[in-house]
Design a protein that fits this description.
Layout: H1 10-21, H2 24-36, H3 40-68, H4 72-79, H5 87-118, H6 129-138, H7 140-160, H8 162-189, H9 194-202, H10 211-223, H11 231-236, H12 245-273, H13 283-293, H14 299-330, H15 334-357, E1 366-367, E2 370-371, H16 372-399, H17 402-410, H18 416-442
Antiparallel strand pairs: 1-2
Helix pairs in contact: 1-8, 1-12, 1-14, 2-10, 2-12, 3-9, 3-10, 3-12, 3-16, 3-17, 3-18, 4-5, 5-7, 5-14, 5-15, 5-16, 6-13, 7-14, 7-15, 8-12, 8-14, 9-12, 10-16, 10-18, 13-14, 14-15, 15-16, 16-18
């Protein structure tokens, strides 16, 4: 049965899909992963992986969703009935469940910072920010309580239907996010020793590049585009048949790379100027940003608005994660959707509590030497997402009819057929080989 909801415009779809992709992956995770993985060399790898692997995969998910007009699990069943291929959709649903469980923890941190900013408690002496962040992530009541509020906001929106709210809000929030990023970059670049940060971020230094850095760059290219979990299968199922999938995919990738570039240019000049280690980890964003805004006239107001927009970008990603689960269970039934959303969202909250406590009362509890939060992050970013992406890369050329692929790629564009062969070649050969190499590295064979 065809989906009853559709995006009202191509721009609405692009901004909603970009909202799904542009969140913690581009703004929070990218700066600290780049900082711990070689700076410019990592960014170059990330760019190559995103264009050569992320983009073909994104387009692959678009083709699956738009051609069937079905949510993730049913889409695979429609294309390959009476087979086990629908487990790709189920894997995506399970991955989003785990991902949202720890993603919501960081969403809670943002909420806490936004509250402190709104009440004038955030802007102050620079040396206090590391202690403030430690206080936020180690306090069990604050961490779990904020995580619950974040999940609650996500539930309320998804239970009412995502398209109308996300699509309209993105048209205003995403451009505003770009503008505020530019303001932050201008200020960061005028700080002392700022160019050292720019050099670290943009000048590749392959001497610091390790096999683990390659693995992280690959995982980040999946994480930041929301591919490998079939989120984009569900989102593209709401897209009209006359819209160009390649143009939409390129637009989303371009927005994602632009945000990642802006995030690096905003963070690293400030990092080097303020004497913070670029390998500071997840707290980098929460320590550096307040320091930068403290030096800007009306910095408290700028920081509050930025955190609100950052929260929105984070929520739009959370909406898409919960949406794929709910859409797969509710099957376009609005009454069932409400109940399913509440039950699923609350279960995700419960599963995420250990991640919320992993920097505090459960900090001594580790899994393979990693905290619960970091272990869940590694499982999703470096195993489940690449596995899902590998299966999608195999599924599209193997199980989908060539005429369907050509029709979907060509719809809404005169240039679709020109790039069809290149896209299919990358998806069929380069993507699987690259992912398999990373898997071999993960298990220590190479």
């Amino acid at each position: 049965m065809k989906q009853t909801e559709q995006w009202t415009s191509k721009l609405g779809f692009i901004l909603a899909a970009a909202g799904s992709a542009i969140g913690l992956g581009a703004i929070w995770k990218f700066p600290y992963v780049a900082g711990t993985s070689g700076g410019g060399a990592f960014f170059l790898l990330f760019l190559l992986f995103t264009v050569l692997i992320g983009l073909p995969l994104l387009l692959g998910e678009f083709v699956i969703g738009r051609s069937t007009q079905q949510e993730a699990i049913t889409a695979y069943k429609t294309i390959a009935p009476n087979s086990g291929w629908h487990w790709i959709g189920k894997l995506g649903v399970a991955t989003c469940f785990i991902l949202l469980s720890f993603y919501s923890v960081v969403g809670g941190w943002i909420l806490l910072y936004l509250f402190r900013s709104a009440t004038g408690q955030l802007i102050g002496e620079m040396q206090a920010y590391d202690k403030l962040f430690e206080q936020v992530i180690t306090d069990p009541v604050l961490s779990v309580g904020a995580q619950f509020v974040f999940i609650l906001l996500t539930i309320v929106v998804v239970a009412r239907g995502v398209q109308e709210g996300i699509e309209k809000a993105n048209k205003y929030m995403m451009p505003a996010l770009f503008v505020l990023f530019l303001v932050l970059i201008v200020r960061s670049l005028t700080l002392d020793d700022a160019m050292k940060g720019v050099t670290f971020f943009l000048q590749p230094d392959f001497s610091n590049l390790t096999s683990e850095s390659v693995l992280y760059a690959m995982g980040q290219s999946f994480f930041s585009l929301s591919v490998g979990v079939s989120v984009m299968v569900t989102y593209s199922s709401y897209l009209a048949k006359n819209e160009s999938l390649p143009r939409s995919a390129v637009s989303i990738v371009g927005l994602n790379l632009a945000i990642s570039l802006l995030a690096g240019l905003a963070i690293f000049p400030a990092v080097f100027s303020l004497g913070v280690e670029p390998t500071a980890g997840p707290g980098l964003l929460f320590i550096v940003l307040p320091s930068v805004f403290a030096k800007i006239p009306l910095g408290g107001l700028f920081l509050m608005v930025f955190l609100a927009l950052f929260l929105f970008a984070t929520l739009t990603s959370a909406f898409s994660m919960l949406e794929i689960i709910v859409a797969s269970l509710a099957r376009d039934d609005m009454e069932k959707r409400k109940k399913t959303t509440w039950i699923t969202g609350l279960l995700i909250f419960v599963v995420g509590i250990p991640s919320a406590l992993s920097y505090g009362v459960w900090s001594e509890m580790t899994i393979f030497g990693k905290s619960i939060f970091d272990a869940a992050d590694f499982l999703v970013s470096n195993i489940l997402m690449p596995l899902g992406a590998l299966l999608i890369a195999i599924f599209v050329p193997l199980k989908m009819k060539r005429e369907v692929l050509v029709a979907e790629i060509s719809a809404g564009s005169n240039n679709g057929k020109r790039w069809f062969a290149v896209w299919l070649l990358l998806l069929r050969y380069l993507v699987p080989v690259a992912i398999i190499i990373v898997f071999l590295d993960v298990i220590g064979i190479i």
